[in-house]
Design a protein that fits this description.
The protein has about 180 residues and is mostly helical. It has six helices and two strands.
Length: about 180
């Protein structure tokens, strides 16, 4: 047996049995729930508690990020939707019709993030349209974060169930 085969026998290169995939999943959702519209959530908490300069900094950053998101959506939104739809369709076909595990893994990471992106865009529109300030802004950002965390919990559950199913299927093939 060659050293190359020995390495691949020791380190499983399949997506759902690879530790790095699960670390990436945890980091993805940890980051997504911590950064609310491009602002770390501890900044929201500090602005709510202390006010003053912390609140002004939060309002400035939220203003910059919401206007930036809305500008990108207005200028290139249709292209982004088309490219995203094309990419997700490729991942679905390769992953679930051709049974390529890597495409399944990427889809299970990317699909919920599309929901988070749409939710962030909706929240940005609401903040700008209603000119949210002070406590109303803090509540809206808190609701946004809780919704992202809910999407993350459901996504992690579905991904872990699918990953376990895939790993059991591989094990069943080995037992035959």
């Amino acid at each position: 047996m060659s050293w190359y085969q020995t390495i691949f026998d020791l380190i499983d290169m399949r997506s759902f049995s690879n530790l790095w995939f699960w670390i990436a999943l945890a980091v993805l959702w940890s980051t997504a729930s911590h950064w609310v519209l491009g602002v770390p959530f501890d900044m929201v908490v500090r602005a709510r508690r202390k006010g003053g300069q912390a609140a002004q900094d939060l309002h400035d950053m939220i203003g910059i990020n919401t206007r930036r998101m809305l500008f990108i959506a207005q200028v290139s939104g249709l292209w982004l939707i088309g490219l995203t739809t094309f990419t997700m369709t490729i991942l679905i076909v390769l992953g679930f019709f051709y049974d390529i595990e890597f495409a399944q893994a990427v889809f299970l990471l990317a699909a919920p993030m599309m929901l988070v992106w749409a939710l962030s865009l909706s929240t940005a529109r609401q903040i700008v349209a209603d000119a949210l300030e002070e406590e109303a802004l803090y509540r809206r950002l808190g609701r946004h974060r809780m919704t992202v965390q809910g999407i993350g919990m459901v996504s992690i559950f579905i991904t872990s169930m699918w990953g376990m199913w895939q790993n059991m299927q591989v094990f069943n093939l080995w037992m035959r």
